[in-house]
């Protein structure tokens, strides 16, 4: 059993390495994408700064320190949320490659050849995404995070950055981010299979990106949705992609709350994997029927 696991690890290790090397090969365009998002984050931070400094005090709540709050977020917490969102979107959205790979294999007619290879197609794609995540973390996230903190701290003052780190924020935030990648990459894998039937992927990509950006918390914190919507959205898989790892890293959850939210992520991860296996088995039959 151990020998089989070791052989499988060796088999897919090359795909992890390939994902890492691909990220390095395109690091210039990736840096451009990151810097564009950094500029976007700075502009949105100015917007929130203006919102929190309106003359109408009746729209705010106040904490015990007299700080203005909107939906339990102070301005420092909001700016920090935006900063962490930029990091998590780099790690998760920027690392997942399943949508592009699957849709390209389908459109170019390579999917049948991929399926007859002596490897698991899905695990190969996920391994590639993990490799990209590792490369993103070491090459992109660390330097860009430093730039983010210095830039936003210089503009708004370092007192406007809110960090409440302890051991479980770091540990569980890291675990949550890995689970987030699996959920997002699996969702990518499922949606990309629709290319079998539509013949085009660009429209699917835009639809997917719009829904996930809106419901994952990457545009605004989910706390800003109406209370009736929050109770529904917080239990969808999308919240586990950005919102949950963000709030864990910020220290907004107690240890028990962090564990409960990671459990919710794990449940959705298992559900998404089962859905992906089912839809892919149906899609494979579609390939066979077309190929005769």
Number of beta strands:
3
Main β sheet profile = 3 strands, antiparallel
Distance between the termini: 37 Å
- The side-by-side strand order for the widest beta sheet comes to 1-2-3
Helix percent reads over 70%
What is the string of helix and strand elements?
Answer: HHEEEHHHHHHHHHH
Average pLDDT figure: 82
Domain unit count? 1
What is the rounded Rg?
21 Å
Return residue spans where pLDDT drops below 50 for at least 5 consecutive residues: 1-6, 288-292
SS summary, helix count: 12
Overall, the morphology is: globular
Strand content: under 5%
Based on secondary structure, the structural category is mainly alpha
Topology:
Layout: H1 2-25, H2 27-52, E1 61-62, E2 68-70, E3 73-74, H3 75-92, H4 98-107, H5 111-115, H6 121-156, H7 167-192, H8 195-198, H9 202-216, H10 227-233, H11 243-250, H12 255-291
Antiparallel strand pairs: 1-2, 2-3
Helix pairs in contact: 1-6, 2-3, 2-6, 3-6, 3-11, 4-7, 6-7, 7-11, 7-12
């Amino acid at each position: 059993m151990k020998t089989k696991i070791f052989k499988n690890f060796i088999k897919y290790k090359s795909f992890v390495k390939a994902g890492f090397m691909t990220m390095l090969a395109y690091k210039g365009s990736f840096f451009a994408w990151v810097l564009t998002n950094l500029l976007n984050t700075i502009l949105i931070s100015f917007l929130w700064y203006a919102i929190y400094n309106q003359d109408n005090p009746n729209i705010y709540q106040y904490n015990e320190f007299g700080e203005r709050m909107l939906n339990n977020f102070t301005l420092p917490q909001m700016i920090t949320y935006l900063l962490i969102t930029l990091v998590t979107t780099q790690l998760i959205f920027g690392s997942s490659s399943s949508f592009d790979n699957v849709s390209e294999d389908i459109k170019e007619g390579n999917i049948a050849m991929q399926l007859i290879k002596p490897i698991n197609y899905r695990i190969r794609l996920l391994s590639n995404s993990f490799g990209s995540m590792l490369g993103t973390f070491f090459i992109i996230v660390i330097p860009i995070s430093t730039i983010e903190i210095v830039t936003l701290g210089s503009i708004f003052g370092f007192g406007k950055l809110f960090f409440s780190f302890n051991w479980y924020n770091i540990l569980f935030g890291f675990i949550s981010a890995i689970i987030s990648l699996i959920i997002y990459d699996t969702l990518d894998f499922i949606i990309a299979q629709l290319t079998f039937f539509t013949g085009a992927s660009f429209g699917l990509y835009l639809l997917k990106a719009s829904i996930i950006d809106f419901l994952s918390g990457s545009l605004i914190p989910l706390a800003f949705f109406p209370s009736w919507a929050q109770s529904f959205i917080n239990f969808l898989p999308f919240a586990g992609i950005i919102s949950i790892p963000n709030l864990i890293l910020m220290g907004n959850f107690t240890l028990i709350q962090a564990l409960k939210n990671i459990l919710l992520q794990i449940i959705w991860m298992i559900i998404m994997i089962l859905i992906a296996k089912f839809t892919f088995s149906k899609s494979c039959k579609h390939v066979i029927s077309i190929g005769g």
